[in-house]
# Entry
Amino acid sequence: MDGPVIFVPITLFIAIAVVLAPLARALGKRIENRGAPPPLPSDVAQRLERMEQAIDAIAIEVERISEGQRFTTRLLSDATSAGALPGGARRP
# Structure
């Protein structure tokens, strides 16, 4: 008599697991994808890539300008601290 009594709960547990596992998996995927932004169209992604490359190029050019400005400032400060202009002329 113990055979059928144990068989019913085990069968019921397996049936519930088989039904609820896919539902739980689907619910989990739905919750996981809820916060994800929709995929961008390919033309928008290409435009963003070109903008990123342009911004990187601008950043490099700005760094070059700032290096030139630092160099010029250093030259002018060295000339004024020495008290003479290039060519031997003195400032009044």
In short: The two ends are 119 Å apart (CA to CA). The chain has a mean pLDDT of 84. Residues 4 and 10 are 10 Å apart (CA to CA). Helices lie at 2-34, 42-82.
